[in-house]
């Protein structure tokens, strides 16, 4: 079969094919780099989010312990000073009753 293209056209076609292959390789390399950077950013975000969640969990545990201790101290105080707590509760009740029933 006879070649109908001139040698200059064949050379230009080969050069164009080589340039297209180079361009394809560059695009693939750039895409792989972008994907790699995206993965690294996502992993970093995941680590940061995990750290924030751990700190929040620690704060909640600390708050829960402090509230538990405060409730225990109030209960102990009320048990040790029953008469004083009863008088204080009665006084608060009288004050609230007065505030609710007074005329504006």
Question: Any descriptors?
Answer:
104 residues; mainly alpha; rod-shaped
What is the total domain count? 1
Structural class assignment? mainly alpha
The termini sit apart by 113 Å
In DSSP terms (H or I, runs of 4 or more residues), the helix count works out at 2
- Strand tally is 0
- What share of the residues lie within helices? over 70%
Largest sheet: none
**Strand content range:** under 5%
- What sequence of helices (H) and strands (E) makes up the elements? HH
Mean pLDDT: 87
Uncertain regions: pLDDT < 50 for 5+ in a row?
A: none
Evaluate the radius of gyration: 40 Å
**Rough outline:** rod-shaped
Question: What report would you give on this structure?
Answer:
There is one protein chain. With 104 residues, the chain is an all-alpha fold. It has one domain. The protein has helices at residues 7-80, 82-101.
In short:
This protein has 104 residues and is an all-alpha fold.
Any chance you could write out the topology, listing elements then pairs?
Elements: H1 7-80, H2 82-101
């Amino acid at each position: 079969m006879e070649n109908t293209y001139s040698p200059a056209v064949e050379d230009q076609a080969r050069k164009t094919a080589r340039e297209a292959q180079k361009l394809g390789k560059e695009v693939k390399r750039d895409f792989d780099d972008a994907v790699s950077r995206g993965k690294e950013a996502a992993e970093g975000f995941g680590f940061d989010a995990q750290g924030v969640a751990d700190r929040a969990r620690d704060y909640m545990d600390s708050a829960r312990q402090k509230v538990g201790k405060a409730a225990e101290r109030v209960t102990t105080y009320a048990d040790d000073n029953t008469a004083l707590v009863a008088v204080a509760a009665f006084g608060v009740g009288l004050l609230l009753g007065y505030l609710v029933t007074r005329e504006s």
